[in-house]
Specification:
alpha+beta; 434 Repressor (Amino-terminal Domain); Immunoglobulin-like; 2 domains; 5-stranded mixed beta sheet; 3-stranded antiparallel beta sheet; 5 helices; elongated
Amino acid sequence: MDCDKIGKLIYNLRKEKDLTQKQLADLMNISDKAISKWERGLGCPDVSLLPELSQLLGVNIEELLSGNLALNETIGGNMKKLKFYVCPQCNNLLTATGDANISCCGKRLEALAAAKGAESHLLNIEPVEDELYVSSSHEMKKDHYISFVAYVTGDRVFIVKQYPEWNMQFRFHKLGHGKLYFHCSNHGLFYHLI
């Protein structure tokens, strides 16, 4: 650990939050001398203080300990770059259009890699006027089901969450060319070109 880098980061984040050393110290029930010591690089926060410090400064613990924040390139919010993350513990669905450090249930999540839908994982897509009727014969049991379907174009995304024992059928308004992503709880993420 580089205490100088960590101290500079703590100083910059504290200033962004418009907090004095005393205010930050009071929020953490420690002395302002400890904050001053960290910011001058003369020591690092105790491990027991890291969760609270990271929450107060709005940064994750790993970035705090590394001493720098990794900034994403501005990509203009292109939805075609959307990445999907699904927590294996609670099935929480998260998305990001750029690089992100995402965690859920205490574990870091990796972006899902999408495979082209194969015979065993195909959706039935029928155009009905200005909509797409989507259905599937995929089983929808608690241990094997499609958890979500997302219709992604360059500037929009429409997500339909699915649950076990539901009939897999719904309609999307057709938004133009894009990809229809769908996630099987056992086999991962697939896509279908529209």
